[in-house]
Amino acid sequence: MKRYQGEGAQGLQERSRAPLRHPHQTPADIEARVVNLRRQRPSWGPRKLRAYLAQQDAATAWPAPSTIGALVQREGLAIPRRKRRRAPPYTQPLAHAEQPNQVWCADFKGWFTTADGDRIDPLTISDAHSRYLLRCQAVEHANTEQVRAIFEASFREYGMPLAIRTDNGTPFASRAIAGLSRLSLYWMKLGIVPERIQAGHPEQNGRHERMHLTLKQETASPPAANRRQQQLAFDCFRRQYNQERPHEALEQKTPASCYQFSPREYPARVPEPEYGDSMQVRRVQGHGQISWKHHDVFLSEVLIGEYVGFEPIDERYWCVYFADFAIALFDSHRLQIQSLPEDRQDES
């Protein structure tokens, strides 16, 4: 009757029975804060958005991740991805990293160019346990000298890890015996184990590779104007990745809240290898050979100028050590250097 009296015959038309107000509707101001954060962090998913907002304002009842996901999609801020059939991901490649500084991961993010055509090769170093990004730095040349300088600065700032995991590329490894490189010799002198993934298996360094995907999304598209601006973008990303971005594998904590400095301080002087009385010590000569009973035996050019130790196994075979690490077998009858069997590699 009220509709007829107020609107006449038009008021008798069928109308929607949907309520004008839903008691569980997300308040507009909360929706606005979610949308604003998503625009600032377009690569963050609903869980990260909610975790970050809860850290900043714990008193507010933030909506569930599913509600945030629906809001992001409704506002046109979702990025659709093409679905691909793929094998299940290898999610536990570093299960032995149970605390910070047990294993650091290092790699070069694939190179790209800035707007002025300069090539950028970012070297990244992260802690496997906490995902803390220790370094993200563009190098002019991916050689031993520049990479060692970055690692030395990292050791001085954070202390030293027990192991460093890399791929088999230069300058981390070489085709020499045991994959040794001048950089890995530097680590070994410091008592750091050089871990290398199997060739063609980047998933064995999967946590670090996943960070590279986020790095590319956040800093490489669109490219910066020049090298200096690109490094500023890397520095900004590193700050945000460590201190702001919640990580699902860390129970939505930030890497900075889970990382702590290593108690293994970088020494004032890199120690030279020392060998026990049970070993015979030889200096690697100018062409990579050692002298054994007046015979030259080729070992490796990487080791030129270094001292190595020979520990007897039996009357014929000797185990070759560099510092505390077994690197090869020596057949004293044939005067040949051989690769270590896998069981002795695991022991070393």
Could you walk me through the main structural features you see in this protein, from its secondary elements to its overall organization?
There is one protein chain. This protein is α+β, with helices and mostly antiparallel strands and 348 residues long. The chain has 3 domains: 55 residues; 156 residues, Nucleotidyltransferase, domain 5; 68 residues, no CATH class. It has 10 helices and 13 strands. Strands 1, 2, 3, 4, 5 and 6 form a 6-stranded mixed sheet that branches. It has a 5-stranded antiparallel sheet with strand order 7-10-11-12-13. Helix 6 links the parallel strand 5 and strand 6. Helix 3 crosses helix 4. The chain is elongated and about 120 Å long. About 3% of the residues have low confidence.
User: How much helix, percentage-wise, in residues?
Assistant: 25-40%
Q: What summary fits the major beta sheet?
A: 6 strands, mixed
Number of domains: 3
Report the order of strands and helices.
Answer: HHHHEEEEHEHEHHHEEEEEEEH
Shape summary: elongated
Mean pLDDT: 87
Per the CATH scheme, the topology name of the largest domain is: Nucleotidyltransferase, domain 5
What top-tier CATH class of the largest domain fits best?
Alpha Beta
* Radius of gyration using CA atoms only: 29 Å
Q: What's the tally of helices?
A: 10
**Structural class of the helix and strand makeup?**
alpha+beta
How many beta-strand elements? 13
CATH architecture of the largest domain: 2-Layer Sandwich
Going by CATH, the homologous superfamily of the largest domain would be: Ribonuclease H-like superfamily/Ribonuclease H
Stretches where pLDDT is under 50 for at least 5 consecutive residues are 83-93
- The fraction of residues in strands falls at 15-25%
Quote the distance from N terminus to C terminus: 92 Å
